[in-house]
Amino acid sequence: MSQIKIATLGLAAAVAVSSALVAAPAFAAGEVKPPKSVHFSFEGPFGTYDRGQLQRGYKVYEQVCAACHSMDLVAFRNLGDPGGPEFSPAEVRVLAAEFPREVVDGPDDLGDMFERPGKPSDYFPPPFPNQAAARASNSGAYPPDFSVIAKARPNGPAYIYSLLVGYEDPPAGMELRDGAYYNSYFPGGQIAMAPPLFDEMVEYTDGTPMTVEQYSKDLSAFLMWTAEPKLEERKRIGFQVMVFLVVLAGLLYFTKKKLWRDVDH
Amino acid sequence: MSGQSTYHFKNPAVRWLDSRLPIISAMKVNALDFPTPKNLNYFWTFGGILTLFLGIQIVTGLVLAMHYTAHVDQAFNSVEEIMRDVNYGWLMRYMHANGASFFFIAVYIHIFRGLYYGSYKAPRELLWMIGVVILLIMMATAFMGYVLPWGQMSFWGATVITNLFSAIPLVGEPIVQWLWGGFAVGNPTLNRFYALHFLLPFVLAAVVFLHIWALHVPGNNNPTGVEVKSNKDTVPFHPYYTVKDFLAVIVFLIVYAAFVFYLPNYLGHTDNYIPADPLVTPAHIVPEWYFLPFYAILRAIPDKLGGVIAMFASIGILFLLPWLDTSKVRSAAFRPLYRQFFWILVLVCFGLGYLGSQPAEGGYVIASQILTAYYFLHFLVILPLLGLFEKTKPLPGSISESVLSKDKGGGPTDGGGGTVAAAAASAPEKRG
Amino acid sequence: MQKGCDPAGGAGRFGLSPGPFVAKNKAFSRKRSGAEGAERAFADQYFGDLDVAHAHTDTEEPTRRDFLYIATGAVTAVGVGAAIWPFIDQMNPDASVQALASIEVDISAIEVGQSLTVMWRGKPVFIRHRTEAEIAEAEAVPMSDLPDPLARNANLPESDPATDTNRAHAQGEAKPEWLLMIGVCTHLGCVPIGESGEYDGWFCPCHGSHYDTAGRIRKGPAPRNLDIPEYEFVSDTLVRVG
Fold first, then answer.
1. Which CATH superfamily hosts domain B29-219+236-285?
2. CA-CA 20 to 30 A from A118: which of A198, B113, B414, C188?
3. Distance from C-alpha of C131 to C-alpha of C184, rounded to nearest angstrom
4. 8-state DSSP, B427
5. Is C210 a catalytic residue?
6. What's the whole-model pTM score?
7. Is residue C11 one of the residues assigned to a domain?
8. Contact in structure between B88 and C86 (CB atoms under 8 Å)
9. How far is it, in rounded angstroms, from Cα A61 to Cα A82?
10. Given this model, what pLDDT does residue B6 score?
11. Does the beta carbon of A259 lie under 8 angstroms from any beta carbon of chain B?
């Protein structure tokens, strides 16, 4: 009969958990369109990042997004970390040195700050010195930092992808604010960012199609990696832990059963 | 607790130690050999699970404290640096964040087990009340912990909850400024919340000690609600319940691990990955899921002070529960009517949780008001009256008798509906 | 105790008696002998006495049951062991600290006779562009005058002698005009002062240790020559430390 109790316990736990999930705060739905359904290699319990995709995604970020969007929490060295784009150490040094902006360092012997090419240990240099400067250069809108953006939006990677491919003409009769663009995936529908991607904009050397669609997908995957760089390690350790716990639970189940066999209870 | 040791140890070193500080015999009396009713079902394993989670939270919390920076300019980034740079930092943080959720899942199951089996009744009133204190400390700890990553929900959650105190007449404003250490939630607030978040778990551990002490005076309640009559009704805690609790712990950990490793952010809110910005309020402020029922009660009352009072009263009323329930019978297994009302209360609490996650407008508000009214009705009206009018089933003479009668296929059985919940509740009547 | 499987009694199973494991094994080998007794004792050790007053008679082969207990205990022990590691490892230097474990220094601006002090792994590193006179002075010191005869150079084998060439030796090459040392006195960790002391090298003001122009201890309480970190000339003007 222990099975029944375990089953009921399991069911009760399932009820509790699933109810908690149902009750988990839903994001403000409003009129925002749910993101397009799109599949990524990192989904599922065994999903991993596609190295080529992350490398292409970095290229899109570096050549397009980095002009306005900072990525303060990511260092060039991370581009070579296991579980990421996995550029070689030599490539990482080159990418750091050739980043579109130099790194501000200092003060030097005269007390002045100076600019120098990036090194692997440097963090991605930001496009603007502070938020006010960023707003001033973008007609009042603040381009958010991209470090954890994929976790800061519900269904992040799919949302970013949908947003990038989702620019269209506003529905008839809709008045857009000055400098705003219509994008039905953006909360409110009006986004200050002009469509950033165009076909053939970034050169891919591995034969991947150079389309907005592909760029968007690669960038979304790259941003998921910057938000969750330990995803692969997490799933790998998670699998080991789950196997261990299930084996131990099995052993304990039989141990408990034998132990209690001679007790009326 | 235990005075002179009555155990005789063969080992001279143990004898020497135990005669001066009877720590070994105290352990034997209160843990290993503690006589425990032999008919406890798996709902009795949550005490052990909770103790483990207090330990997990303290240990992972200590690790996070070694790397965290409590300053408004650095808190968000320091948490992310833990996630990225610290060895296994991501594991520590996800264990801690999800650990809080699973701590509450376990404590809610533990509380509802107590409600179902009447574990709050004499002579266990104080045990129950200490438990309510534990719940309050847990809530305060969890709330302040959620502020520390200094994301949008941290900031605005802190703002909304601390503003509750401004509802107090006359002294409300000064109290809120005192809590903040300023004119809004800011760096002083973050620092004091960090200090208190670090302290409270140890207070919690001390109160848990009292909880267990108070438990070991009358001993465990059990699914029949009939007190232990003789040695035949009990087994030593070790190894019977150590192994059983261990099994339950591992099963619970499987669910926990599934979240930590595969859905680490599911129970959190995406807005908390946006750094706190005092100029931009999120479209929809919601607390963590475990506060949602109370949040719904808060918003159900259209008056600011009234809402705050109702919210605190919804927990405060639990202190009075031992005297509000007038029934002579403890266990819902022998109280057919109470059992129905118990499950209605469970549903009402889930309903309040759902409503707490919804915007406070239209039908949601009305539904919250109805469910809030029912919640208080349950404790203030239904329970006192049930004890007077309910016709209870005959109680078994002893735990052993109930166990033996079940072997013959007799004994009391639940008549409850065919829901999963009823099946779970009827578990004590089956052999396990 | 009905089954009489635990001669050591209650206290023993909590691991309190001196070497309870061994003692119980002996007791068993007398009665049962062999692995079965040992396993049984081990299981008792882990789970205590599994029999209680109202238990029924054990009809099963003890070994199979004991194996289950041993397996459960062993798997638990492995799990606890594995779970402890992350909690220890989190205190090791993190990735951002590791990333700064080696630095590159531009030495083009250091004139002959000048020094530069840079921070490396939280410690000062002296980079001295030595004069001909300093080099000659260091080379002239007979090895027998050195309290510490070893080079203390991370770029060379540990046993290499403290000749001037070995002191000014980078990874793969010796450049006598450049001396790189960790600027921490080997006595008690103070930072020595440059171009001072009785041997024209460094002098530690804390307890009066004198180092010569090759950073070797000559007089005073310091036990060792100043340590030389791993370094490499990336180009004529750029040196990588660490």
1. Cytochrome Bc1 Complex; Chain C (1.20.810.10)
2. A198
3. 22
4. G
5. no
6. 0.84
7. no
8. yes
9. 20
10. 65
11. yes
